């Protein structure tokens, strides 16, 4: 270690993150909110803040064919990674697609085929799964059918899954088990495990997912209530990953996580939660209120560290880094 490094006031330089779930294709990062322009494109500043906070890389979420294509483009441009798949709330797109569900699955397949290697590659099949809180977008039967069909892509390309499960645990694990993902993350059928992201379920559900060989992704939404915190604490640290789900899932003062964030050292607080303004009062270099950013991943990590006080912040973060590199095969980041 050089003198210059050891003289730094913090150990922030030793802290490094991979945000496994970031919706960087969302137009709010370009200043557009529900089709209305509110401020300039500030994606470069968002990325600058994330770098300052120790975010070394990200996995950009693809939520349908179009978004997956955009996610891959952004990943190539910035040297990140992407997922390719269709979110349950978009699953009616399979049936509406020209050529039908087979053609839609084939479009996802072709995106994977062309992008499984090199810079900006696809590292997971997803976001896919079931969301029974939002069946107004797609009925459970539609969601189930197209969740199941996407599992074939994970088998074909031996890729991990990036999974979403909301109020649908029973059907979710039933489909995974029926398709061979009930043991060891589906390795026996050609799969390669994966992560159930944005986990907000029950401790028993968590235990079942972990016993099936899946990892669990935690963000601000996973740390909202005291029950959430108890559940987050129960995640085996060898199976834990961090995400922001930005621009969603901001951590707020009303969440149970706040008591833990209150103990965040000032120099880290400045990096993870820079001053914010409303979109209408946009000022370059400031975070937009209510629009979560990858730099806040450090806050999620800090809460996890507080739930495991026997380990240092650095050790927790390092463990999670290792899990992420191993599952998604991101060895070039080391
Ligand atoms: Zn999700």
């Amino acid at each position: 270690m050089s003198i210059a490094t050891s003289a730094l006031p913090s150990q922030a330089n030793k802290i490094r993150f991979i945000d496994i779930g970031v919706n960087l294709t969302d137009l709010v990062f370009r200043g557009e909110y529900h089709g209305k322009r509110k401020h300039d494109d500030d994606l470069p500043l968002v990325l600058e803040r994330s770098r300052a906070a120790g975010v070394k890389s990200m996995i950009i979420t693809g939520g349908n064919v179009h978004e997956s294509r955009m996610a891959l483009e952004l990943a190539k441009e910035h040297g990140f990674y992407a997922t390719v798949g269709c979110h349950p709330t978009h699953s009616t797109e399979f049936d509406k697609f020209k050529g039908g569900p087979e053609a839609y699955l084939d479009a996802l397949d072709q995106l994977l085929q062309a992008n499984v290697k090199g810079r900006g590659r696809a590292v997971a099949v997803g976001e896919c799964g079931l969301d029974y809180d939002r069946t107004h977008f797609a009925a459970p039967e539609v969601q189930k059918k197209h969740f199941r069909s996407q599992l074939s892509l994970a088998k074909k390309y031996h890729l991990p899954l990036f999974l979403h499960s909301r109020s649908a645990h029973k059907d979710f694990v039933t489909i995974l088990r029926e398709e061979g993902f009930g043991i060891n993350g589906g390795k026996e059928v050609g799969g390669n495990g994966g992560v159930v992201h944005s986990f907000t379920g029950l401790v028993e559900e968590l235990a079942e997912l972990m016993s099936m060989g899946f990892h669990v992704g935690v963000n601000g939404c996973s740390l909202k209530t005291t029950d959430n915190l108890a559940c987050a604490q129960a995640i085996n640290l060898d199976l834990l990953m961090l995400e922001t789900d930005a621009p969603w899932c901001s951590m707020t003062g009303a969440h149970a996580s706040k008591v833990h964030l209150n103990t965040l050292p000032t120099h880290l607080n400045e990096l993870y939660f820079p001053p914010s303004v409303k979109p209408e009062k946009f000022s370059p270099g400031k975070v937009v209120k209510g629009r979560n950013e990858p730099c806040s991943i450090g806050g999620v990590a800090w809460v996890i560290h507080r739930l495991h006080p026997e380990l240092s912040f650095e050790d927790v973060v390092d463990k999670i880094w290792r899990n992420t590199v191993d599952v998604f095969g991101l060895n070039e980041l080391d």
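The radius of gyration is 19 Å. The first helix runs from residue 3 to 6.
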